[in-house]
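Subject: design request, 258 residues
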């Protein structure tokens, strides 16, 4: 069941190092049928004089930067050469994650499951992924799993996941959502982008009361260990700084400024 709450989210960010101020505006209308449920724009200002520099498509940036962070988490937390990828969902984030992960890793097989069977078939036709009839079938041999559904009820169960699997939980950025079974979350080593934000907003943590082992930045910086031979989970909520630096990159490439 999908979240049926209409939202307008505001994500401001200032980066002195990047000389940029940016704010992402996001609307979420889960009941949309003929148009996407999410839309977004990023408004970019100069931090030198406050001048409006650009309004950039936030939907594309959100999809790409979310998947890029997942690639980084997978690089540090999965087995060294993952062979089987399972994607739960068939929407925008599922497609962006397929593109980013298959560009960065050499998978011998990609499985997909979606409650929307027509979308799943289109996903399979477009990507070559194997469309599975059940989630269990999709994930049973997976080295890397991505959940990208926005479900209010757990979809991924502990008994279906083999030892040493890395899970990227992307689709539960609100307390009303939960994609991963609480027992699986508690039995995994959990990493997040930001401690405070994760405990405040993550549906997975809210439901499971699992402990967070570390931030992915701490793993990259060597302050926290990664455990490639154990079940690990990266809970992705997104951060405004990711939108800010992505918007700067787009603006710079277009104008050669900043």
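Subject: RE: design request

Done. Sequence follows.
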């Amino acid at each position: 069941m999908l979240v049926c709450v209409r939202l307008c989210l505001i994500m401001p960010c200032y980066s002195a190092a990047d000389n940029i101020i940016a704010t992402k505006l996001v609307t979420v209308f889960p009941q949309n049928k003929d148009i996407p449920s999410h839309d977004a724009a990023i408004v970019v200002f100069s931090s030198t004089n406050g001048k409006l520099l650009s309004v950039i498509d936030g939907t594309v940036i959100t999809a790409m930067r979310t998947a890029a962070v997942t690639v980084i988490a997978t690089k540090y937390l999965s087995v060294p050469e993952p062979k089987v990828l399972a994607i739960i969902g068939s929407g925008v984030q599922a497609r962006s994650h397929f593109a980013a992960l298959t560009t960065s890793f050499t998978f011998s097989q990609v499985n997909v499951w979606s409650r929307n069977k027509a979308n799943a078939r289109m996903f399979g036709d477009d990507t070559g992924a194997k469309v599975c009839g059940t989630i269990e079938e999709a994930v049973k041999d997976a080295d890397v799993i991505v959940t990208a559904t926005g479900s209010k009820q757990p979809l991924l169960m502990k008994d279906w996941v083999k030892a040493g699997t890395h899970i990227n939980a992307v689709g539960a950025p609100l307390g009303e959502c939960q994609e991963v079974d609480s027992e699986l979350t508690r039995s995994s080593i959990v990493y997040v982008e930001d401690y405070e934000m994760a405990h405040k907003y993550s549906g997975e943590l809210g439901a499971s009361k699992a402990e967070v082992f570390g931030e992915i930045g701490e793993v990259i910086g060597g302050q926290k260990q990664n455990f490639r031979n154990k079940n690990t989970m990266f809970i992705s909520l997104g951060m405004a700084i990711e939108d800010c630096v992505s918007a700067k990159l787009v603006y710079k490439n277009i104008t050669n400024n900043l």
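The chain has two domains: 7-60+241-257, 63-239.
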